[in-house]
C-alpha cells in the first residue's frame, strides 16, 4: 500500500513539474514573442519615419539631406518631417565664411533695440509656444532639412498672437520667416491666404477698431497677389488700399523673410529684401498699435503655414554717431543662421551703414568683437563668436570695400552678456556684434 501511495505521489509530482515547465516555457515564449513584436514594431516605425521623411523631402523639393547650418535669428526656413529633434546639437556648423548672400538692392534696416524675439528655442517640439495666444490649435515642429530650427505650425482659420511686453512705439520694425507646407498646385484652394495684422490690441486676438494688414497668397499656381489695407473705424475709415502682383510664390514655398517697417504714418513691407509696399499715409499715428496677429484660411487639414524667428524692435541704428562719438557701437541687427557663422541676407542694410561709417573716417582702425548666448559649451561659443566676427569683417571688406588692414577681429563667446540668458529675448540681446575704435 505504501509502495502504491509512493508511486502515485511520484506520478503527481512529475506531472506538476511537467506542467510547471510548460507554463514557464509558455511565459518565456510569450515574452520572447512580445519582444520580437516590439522589435518589429520599432523597425516598422523607423521605416515609416524614414519613408515619411523622404516623402516630405520630395514634397518640399529637398535633396534628402539635412542642412548643416540651419537658419534664424540666430535663424530661418525649410521642409518638414514634423519630427521632434532628438536632443540639442551644440556642434558648430561648418560654413564658408567668404560666401555671403545678401539683399544688395534693399534699403531694409531693422530696428536696433529688441522688444520681442522668439525662435521657440525655449519651447519643446509638439507643444504650443508659451509666449503666444490662440483660440484654436497649433504646435511646434522641426523640418527635415533644418532640424535645429523650430517652427510654429499654424492651422486653418486660426489667429495667433505673440505676447508683447508693451504697446508698439510709433516707429518700429517686425520681421519673421514664413513658409507654406504641403501646398501644391493640385491640392490647394485658390482662396488660400496668409495675413499679418498690426492691431489696436484692446482685446486679445481681436483686430479692434484700428488695424493694418498685409495679405499673401500661398497658392502656387496662378494666384500671385499681395494686398495691403489699413482701416480706422473710429476716424478716417479706409486709410490705404494696395495690391501688387510681385511673384513671390516660389519664395513662399521655400521659405521667405518678411519685414515690416512703421515710421509714424508710413508703412513699408519687404519680402526677401524686396520692397513690396510703401504707403506714406497708411497709419493713423494718434494711437499706438498694441498687437501683432497672424491668420490663415483656405487650408486643408494636411496643410499649414509655418512661422519662426519673430523679431520686433524699435529705434534706428546710428553706427556713425555712436562709433565715432562714444568710441564703440554694438548691434543685434547683424544676424546669422542658427549655430553658424553664415550671415543672414537681411543683415545687408546694417552692414552697409556700418561700412559707410567706417569709410567716412579713414584714419581710424576698428576692433570687431563677436558675442554669443550661453547655449552650448564655452569652447563652442568662443569658436563660434570668433568665426562670426571674421564673417562680419569679410563682408565689410569684400562687399563694401573697407580696407582689411583697418579691421581686427576677436570673439568673446558667452563671457560678456548684457542680459541673463534665461529667455529667447535675452539670448537675442546677447547675440551681438561690437565695434570699437583702436
UniProtKB/TrEMBL annotation:
<protein>
    <submittedName>
        <fullName>OmpA family protein</fullName>
    </submittedName>
</protein>
<dbReference type="InterPro" id="IPR006664">
    <property type="entry name" value="OMP_bac"/>
</dbReference>
<feature type="region of interest" description="Disordered">
    <location>
        <begin position="52"/>
        <end position="90"/>
    </location>
</feature>
<dbReference type="InterPro" id="IPR036737">
    <property type="entry name" value="OmpA-like_sf"/>
</dbReference>
<dbReference type="GO" id="GO:0009279">
    <property type="term" value="C:cell outer membrane"/>
</dbReference>
<dbReference type="Pfam" id="PF00691">
    <property type="entry name" value="OmpA"/>
</dbReference>
<keyword id="KW-0472">Membrane</keyword>
<dbReference type="InterPro" id="IPR006665">
    <property type="entry name" value="OmpA-like"/>
</dbReference>
<keyword id="KW-0732">Signal</keyword>
<feature type="signal peptide">
    <location>
        <begin position="1"/>
        <end position="26"/>
    </location>
</feature>
<feature type="compositionally biased region" description="Low complexity">
    <location>
        <begin position="65"/>
        <end position="90"/>
    </location>
</feature>
<feature type="domain" description="OmpA-like">
    <location>
        <begin position="323"/>
        <end position="438"/>
    </location>
</feature>
<keyword id="KW-0998">Cell outer membrane</keyword>
<dbReference type="InterPro" id="IPR050330">
    <property type="entry name" value="Bact_OuterMem_StrucFunc"/>
</dbReference>
Amino acid at each position: 500500500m505504501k509502495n502504491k501511495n509512493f508511486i502515485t505521489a511520484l506520478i503527481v509530482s512529475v506531472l506538476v513539474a511537467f506542467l510547471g515547465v510548460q507554463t514557464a516555457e509558455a511565459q518565456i515564449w510569450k515574452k520572447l514573442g512580445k519582444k520580437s513584436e516590439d522589435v518589429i514594431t520599432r523597425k516598422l516605425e523607423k521605416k515609416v519615419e524614414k519613408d515619411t521623411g523622404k516623402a516630405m523631402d520630395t514634397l518640399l523639393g529637398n535633396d534628402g539631406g539635412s542642412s548643416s547650418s540651419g537658419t534664424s535669428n540666430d535663424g530661418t526656413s525649410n521642409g518638414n518631417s514634423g519630427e521632434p529633434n532628438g536632443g540639442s546639437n551644440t556642434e558648430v556648423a561648418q560654413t564658408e565664411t567668404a560666401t555671403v548672400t545678401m539683399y544688395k538692392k534693399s534699403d531694409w534696416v531693422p530696428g536696433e533695440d529688441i522688444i520681442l524675439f522668439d525662435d521657440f528655442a525655449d519651447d519643446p517640439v509638439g507643444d504650443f509656444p508659451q509666449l503666444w495666444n490662440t483660440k484654436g490649435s497649433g504646435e511646434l515642429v522641426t523640418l527635415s532639412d533644418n532640424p535645429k530650427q523650430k517652427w510654429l505650425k499654424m492651422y486653418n482659420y486660426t489667429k495667433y498672437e505673440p505676447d508683447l511686453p508693451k504697446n508698439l512705439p510709433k516707429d518700429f520694425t517686425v520681421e519673421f520667416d514664413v513658409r507654406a507646407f504641403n501646398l501644391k498646385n493640385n491640392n490647394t484652394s485658390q482662396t488660400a491666404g496668409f495675413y499679418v495684422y498690426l492691431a489696436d490690441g484692446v482685446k486679445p486676438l481681436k483686430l479692434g477698431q484700428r488695424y493694418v494688414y498685409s495679405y499673401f497668397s500661398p497658392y502656387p499656381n496662378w494666384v500671385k497677389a499681395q494686398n495691403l489695407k489699413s482701416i480706422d473705424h473710429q476716424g478716417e475709415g479706409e486709410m490705404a488700399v494696395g495690391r501688387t502682383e510681385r511673384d513671390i510664390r516660389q519664395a513662399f514655398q521655400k521659405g521667405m523673410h518678411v519685414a515690416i517697417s512703421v515710421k509714424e504714418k508710413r508703412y513699408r513691407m519687404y519680402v526677401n529684401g524686396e520692397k513690396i509696399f510703401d504707403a506714406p499715409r497708411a497709419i493713423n499715428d494718434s494711437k499706438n498699435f498694441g498687437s501683432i496677429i497672424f491668420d490663415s484660411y483656405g487650408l486643408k487639414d494636411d496643410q499649414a503655414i509655418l512661422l519662426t524667428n519673430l523679431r520686433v524692435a524699435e529705434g534706428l541704428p546710428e553706427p556713425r554717431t555712436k562709433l565715432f562719438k562714444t568710441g564703440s557701437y554694438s548691434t543685434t541687427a547683424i544676424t546669422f543662421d542658427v549655430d553658424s557663422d553664415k550671415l543672414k541676407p537681411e543683415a545687408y542694410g546694417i552692414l552697409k551703414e556700418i561700412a559707410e561709417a567706417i569709410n567716412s573716417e579713414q584714419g581710424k582702425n576698428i576692433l570687431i568683437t563677436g558675442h554669443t548666448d550661453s547655449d552650448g559649451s564655452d569652447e563652442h561659443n568662443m569658436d563660434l563668436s570668433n568665426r562670426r566676427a571674421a564673417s562680419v569683417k569679410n563682408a565689410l571688406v569684400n562687399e563694401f570695400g573697407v580696407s582689411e588692414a583697418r579691421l581686427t577681429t576677436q570673439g568673446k563667446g558667452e563671457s560678456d552678456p548684457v542680459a541673463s540668458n534665461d529667455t529667447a529675448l535675452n539670448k537675442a540681446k546677447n547675440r551681438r556684434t561690437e565695434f570699437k575704435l583702436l
